[in-house]
Design a protein that fits this description.
This protein is an alpha+beta fold. It has helices spanning 2-6, 23-31, 56-59, 69-75, 86-103, 123-126, 129-144, 156-166, 179-183, 196-204, 210-215, 218-225, 227-237, 267-288, 320-334, 358-361, 364-383, 390-393, 421-429; strands spanning 15-20, 40-43, 51-54, 80-82, 107-111, 114-118, 148-153, 171-174, 253-264, 290-301, 306-317, 340-352, 410-416. It has 3 domains: 1-175, Reverse transcriptase/Diguanylate cyclase domain (Alpha-Beta Plaits, 2-Layer Sandwich); 181-237, 5' to 3' exonuclease, C-terminal subdomain (DNA polymerase, domain 1), CATH 1.10.150; 253-434, Dna Ligase, domain 1, CATH 3.30.1490.100. The chain is globular and about 60 Å long. The structure holds thymidine-5'-triphosphate and magnesium ion (MG) (2 copies).
Length: 440
């Protein structure tokens, strides 16, 4: 792969996208060399577990991330199924991000296993962009015993597409001159922000490839998608992507979600679950000293379709009661009317510490909640007890409010946006049409 593209013109291609190959699975294989060359699947245990990562040997048989474990077992019963070890992946992630940082200070991590690098300022020291990509791949391999793939291009969007095409263990340069030849034959969902629903809308308009979107009248896209999404898709379809590599903390969020072992219809169970999740998220925010302004919910239905809604509050909060009130309101407006498989609550747009506008902006009641929750935090720290809201304890026998997901009938996943599978799933789910309440 690498040799074939070595001669390509990399002038002006100063954006690199680096993504680890089959990351979780590769970390497992690294410490169990006897698994090399075998189909390895991380995750997917339990009646409801989904695959986190599959080695390329498992993928040859159709096993994919986010696939139910049972389906993966049917496709490849011989595969080695392993439970995730997030600490090991976080450690490997830190190490490879450190290698990137040695090349340029302009590193923007996107998830646990990938980052954009702006190498314009590193050319003098390290040589051409392709030489830098080779240097990074060699260091990751030599020091971490892991492989990664690198896309080299003039924009973030093209670099990310290029790294995906280069997988596994490859490098691909897409120069500005070749960008449209590379981009236009791809299906519409190659465009950043196009999820299932937007792809459906585009298909109904007869737009199947990126070229179709590029040639479509902007007015038609606007009518179908709204002004902002139409403008973004049209620009991306012409390989125009002004986003710069940003080292400011990528918008951080904290969330928790619960997968029910049996799909739930009962609104009261959903309400209590949202309250428990909001309580967990509030505790985590206060512990980290963060507040956030945007509350988001995620709802997965029996058929696996995922809906999300969010609302931005006037002031940042770390108060579970406010998070819950917003989450419950969002849920009622969403009104899925179907059996629910999973619900999640997330607070986004986190900032350090307290929001200074809070005292003026909020009345007595909210302060009461805040003080009560802080008192509960203090009691929990002192006595090691979980102090749950009374309405949680009432009739909530089936629900273990635990961040370890040890309850018999539910599993709870808690995570920060910068690390862990939570965020990856959220990225994949992002779809402008699924989320009309999201502020642009
Ligand atoms: P990815 O980079 O999307 O996948 P990958 O590294 O396993 O494979 P690829 O070679 O195609 O890049 O995600 C990085 C890790 O994030 C992945 O190893 C496990 C985790 N993850 C999940 O837990 N759930 C998911 O649905 C996805 C897509 C990833
Ligand atoms: Mg990867
Ligand atoms: Mg990745």
């Amino acid at each position: 792969m690498e040799r074939a593209h070595q001669e390509q013109d990399d002038c002006g291609c100063t954006i690199l996208h680096v993504d680890m190959d089959a990351f979780f699975a590769s970390v497992e294989v690294r410490r169990r060399p006897e698994l090399r060359g075998r189909p390895v699947v991380v995750g997917g245990a339990g009646p409801r577990g989904v695959v986190s990562s599959a080695s390329y040997e498992a993928r040859a048989h159709g096993v994919r991330s986010a696939m139910p474990g049972a389906q993966a077992r049917r496709l490849r019963p011989q595969a080695v199924f392993l439970p995730p070890d997030m600490a090991a992946y976080a450690e490997a992630s830190r190490a490879v991000m450190g290698i990137f940082a040695d090349v340029t200070p302009l590193v923007e991590p996107l998830s646990v296993d990938e980052a954009f690098l702006d190498v314009a300022g590193a050319l003098r020291l390290f040589g051409r962009p392709t030489a830098i990509a080779r240097h990074i791949r060699a260091r990751v391999s030599a020091e971490q015993g892991l492989t990664c793939s690198v896309g080299v291009a003039a924009t973030k969007f093209m670099a990310k597409l290029a790294s995906t095409r280069a997988k596994p263990d490859g490098m691909l340069v897409v120069s500005a001159e070749n960008a449209l030849d590379f981009l236009h034959p791809l299906p519409v969902d190659a465009l950043w922000g196009v999820g299932d629903r937007t792809a459906d809308v585009l298909r109904r308009l007869g737009l199947r490839t990126v070229a179709d979107v590029a040639e479509a009248p902007l007015g038609m896209l606007r009518q179908a998608l709204g002004d902002a999404a139409a403008a973004q898709l049209h620009a991306l379809a012409w390989a125009r992507d002004p986003r710069r590599v940003s080292t400011e903390r990528v918008e951080k969020s904290t969330g928790a979600e619960t997968t029910f072992d049996v799909d739930v219809m009962d609104e009261d169970v959903i309400r209590r679950t949202l309250l428990a999740l909001a309580t967990t998220v509030g505790e985590r925010l206060r512990k980290a000293g963060h507040t956030g302004r945007t509350v988001a919910i995620k709802v997965r239905l029996t058929d696996f379709s995922t809906l999300s809604r969010s609302r931005t509050l006037p002031t940042a909060t770390d108060v579970a009661r406010e998070i819950f009130d917003t989450a419950w309101h969002l849920y009622q407006v969403l009104n899925p009317g179907e059996r629910i498989r999973l619900v999640g609550v997330r607070v986004e747009g986190l900032v350090e510490g307290d929001d200074t506008g809070r005292q003026l902006a909020l009345g007595e009641r909210e302060h009461g909640w805040r003080d009560a929750e802080r008192a509960a935090d203090a009691a929990a720290a002192r006595f090691g007890a979980v102090v749950a809201p009374a309405s949680l304890l009432r009739g909530a026998g089936s629900m273990n409010h635990s961040t370890n997901g040890s309850a018999a009938d539910i599993s709870t996943l808690v995570g920060d946006s910068n690390l862990g599978p939570d965020r990856v799933v959220a990225e994949r789910d992002f779809d402008p049409l699924s989320d009309p309440l999201r502020p642009s």
